[in-house]
Amino acid sequence: MALRGEGAVCRRFRLSRVGGWVTLDKTESGNCKGAAAVNMAGETNQSLDELVQLQCQQLVQQGRSINIGRREERLKSRDRLQGFFEDLQAILTPEMTLEIGAHAAPFSQRMSLRGIEAHAFEANPYNHKAFAGRMKRRAPAVKYHHLAMSDTDGHVTFQVKESRGDEPFKKISGNNSLLQRTAPGITYESVTVPSVRLDSFLAANGLEGRSFSAWIDVEGALGMVTAGFGAALRSCLSLIVEVEDHSFWQGQMLVQDAMRYFAGQGLVPIARDFEALHQYNLLYLRKDMADRPDVAAATSRYLQDL
User: Fold this and answer.
1) How confident is the model at residue 47 (pLDDT cuts 50, 70, 90)?
2) Which own/partner contact pairs does 293-299 have at CB distance under 8 Å and 24+ positions apart?
3) C-beta of residue 129 within 8 angstroms of C-beta of residue 162
4) 4 domain-assigned
5) Minimum mean pLDDT range among 24-38, 100-114, 121-135, 263-277
6) pLDDT for the residue 255
7) Is residue 105 within 8 Å of residue 145, measured between CB atoms?
8) In this structure, what CATH number is given to the domain that contains residue 245?
9) Angle CA 62–68–71, to nearest 5
10) Of all residues in the chain, what percent carry a pLDDT higher than 90?
11) Are 100 and 217 in contact (CB under 8 A)?
């Protein structure tokens, strides 16, 4: 993508020093033009749309050396990105980690063994029952919550796939969701599960203002999850999130809207993988974290090895 050089002004966007990330420009008061502030000239949506387009173009270039047609190469890109995200935690040193849509909570287990306070959230009651005992044995310090992270404090309905035609589905699975699939012919067990907004959870547990990194994999329900964040992402140093550019779940948030949301929260996408054609992971850093020399150096090494 032809950008106009480090430090150049690209309409309302500034090219960051770290890897040339395109970020929202800031006013002198620190408010984001086109994102965190209301633009009375009606340019807010245009600003964010153009920003996301530029960010997408930057990110897709990271796949130039990957043979997308080969599954093993796509999975290798996923594993490298996830490994990089975990390596960054040793540099960022968050006070805690959050794993939302945790399944067996592998990230939380590894972070807990490093001495980081780890919270894992799993909505599927079958998963939580299957893995809770194992968690106590392998990583007893992990706080493994049977909770759906959503836009609601109280209870929500979780959709557990039962069958499609004559084919039954396993209920202990990582691909069930708060949303039903767009694919026809699937029957569901609709289960009522406890739910909490992230801002409410942090407030209730005395965790507001503590720095954290987050791993989010919620099978299409990202819109419901982020709707409950409130101002929580002000304390987020980094996150990795699964996104889709095709609707696999009914009413889901797609990648363009997800990127608009995270841009408005002051987060910068620095890397992605190519796990599948329409589903992949984005790695975000808070802008001031991306600007740190040690983080910039680690990021540069990762990108050079692609």
Assistant:
1) confident
2) 294/91, 295/18, 295/88, 295/91, 295/92, 296/17, 296/18, 296/19, 298/84, 298/87, 298/88, 298/91, 299/18, 299/19, 299/270, 299/271
3) no
4) no
5) 24-38
6) 97
7) no
8) 3.40.50.150
9) 120
10) 84
11) yes
**Which H/E stretch holds residue 255?**
helix 255-264
Residue 83 and residue 110 in contact, taking contact as beta carbons nearer than 8 Å: no
Distances (CA, A) of 132 to 109, 120, 123, 140, 298: 12, 11, 12, 10, 35
Give a yes or no: residue 35 inside a domain. yes
Token representation of residue 215:
């791993």
In this predicted structure, which of 48-52, 95-99, 118-122, 182-186 has the lowest mean pLDDT?
A: 48-52
For residues 263 and 34, is the Cβ–Cβ distance under 8 A?
no
Place of tokens 């040690």: 294
Residue 158 has pLDDT above 90, yes or no: yes
Report DSSP state, residue 141: T
Q: Could you list the residue range(s) of the whole structural domain that residue 21 is in?
A: 9-304
Tally of domains in the chain: 1
10's tokens: 């690209």
Q: Please return the burial class of 289, using the count of CB atoms within 10 Å of its CB with bins 0-12, 13-18 and 19+.
A: buried
Asked, for residue 19, whether it belongs to a domain, the answer is yes
Q: Cα separation of 272 and 240, whole Å?
A: 9
In a domain, 286, yes or no: yes
Q: What is the pLDDT of residues 93-138, one digit of tens each?
A: 999 999 999 999 999 999 999 999 999 999 999 999 999 999 999 9
**In the sheet where 154-164 sits, what is the strand order?**
148-149, 186-196, 154-164, 167-168
- CB-based burial label for 41 (10 Å; 0-12, 13-18, 19+): exposed
